[in-house]
Amino acid sequence: MNFKPLYDRILVEPLEQEEKTAGGIIIPDTAKDKPTEGVVIAVGDGARCDSGECKALTVKTGDRVLFGKWAGTEIKMEGKSYLVIKESDVLGIFN
Q1: Fewest Cβ atoms nearer than 10 Å: which of 9, 21, 27, 65?
Q2: How many angstroms separate the CA atoms of 48 and 9, rounded?
């Protein structure tokens, strides 16, 4: 992939939700919520501090993360949809 996020931004591939509920009801595409989970594909170098130094990011490539529903900017590359979000929009990392 030829994309590197800048500073404290990360590139996330959103994970699609299940098409069925636990009870077996099939959810149509129009009723699905926007994905809020994804896998980190690439990370920037880190946030700039007031002193000019770069603070390393907590998330790393391959992490599965939870992010805000309306976070980031959607981009399309190589036929896939990705999100570019700030690390501060990440709510948590799944173990």
Answers
A1: 21
A2: 12
Q: Which of 52, 46, 54 is nearest to 86 (CA)?
A: 46
**DSSP letter string, 68-83:** -TT-SEEEEETTEEEE
Q: How far apart are CA 79 and CA 22, in angstroms?
A: 30
Tens of pLDDT, residue by residue over 14-69, are 887 666 666 777 766 565 556 688 999 999 888 888 887 888 888 999 999 998 88
Q: Which domains does the chain have, with CATH numbers?
A: 9-15+35-94 (2.30.33.40)
Task: Tell me which residue has tokens 């690439």.
Answer: 42
| Amino acid 84: pLDDT | 94
